[in-house]
Write a structure and sequence with these properties.
about 110 residues, about 35% helix, 4-stranded mixed beta sheet, elongated
């Protein structure tokens, strides 16, 4: 499955548009990650635990979107957009949402 942020796939012709596809993941951030991130915030540096959580959530959301596109009969997704949001009363949840247009290329 070709997945791209561009509106087309270079060297390929889009012959059919299947529709818009989405992938969403909502992930909780636990106390230990919050504590470690707080220490990094105090002392400086990057928060590896949060970065790992972002990477995992983004990967899962993209995989979900690809599966939905495949179920529609597409072999590519173009115009992909990735969005991040924090949710919950204490902002303890991370939502990653990806969307794009499922297409058939030849």
């Amino acid at each position: 499955m070709i997945v791209t942020t561009t509106p087309s796939v270079e060297g390929k012709k889009i012959v059919e548009y299947k529709g818009i596809v989405f992938g969403e993941v909502v992930s909780g951030v636990n106390f230990l990650k919050d504590f470690a991130a707080g220490m990094r915030n105090f002392f400086g540096g990057r928060s590896g635990s949060y970065e790992e959580e972002l990477l995992a959530a983004r990967t899962q959301a993209l995989e979900e979107m690809e599966k939905r596109a495949e179920a529609m009969g597409a072999n590519a997704v173009v115009g992909v957009d990735v969005d991040y949001e924090v949710l919950g009363a204490d902002n303890g949840m991370l939502m990653v949402s990806v969307s794009g247009t499922a297409v058939v290329c030849e």
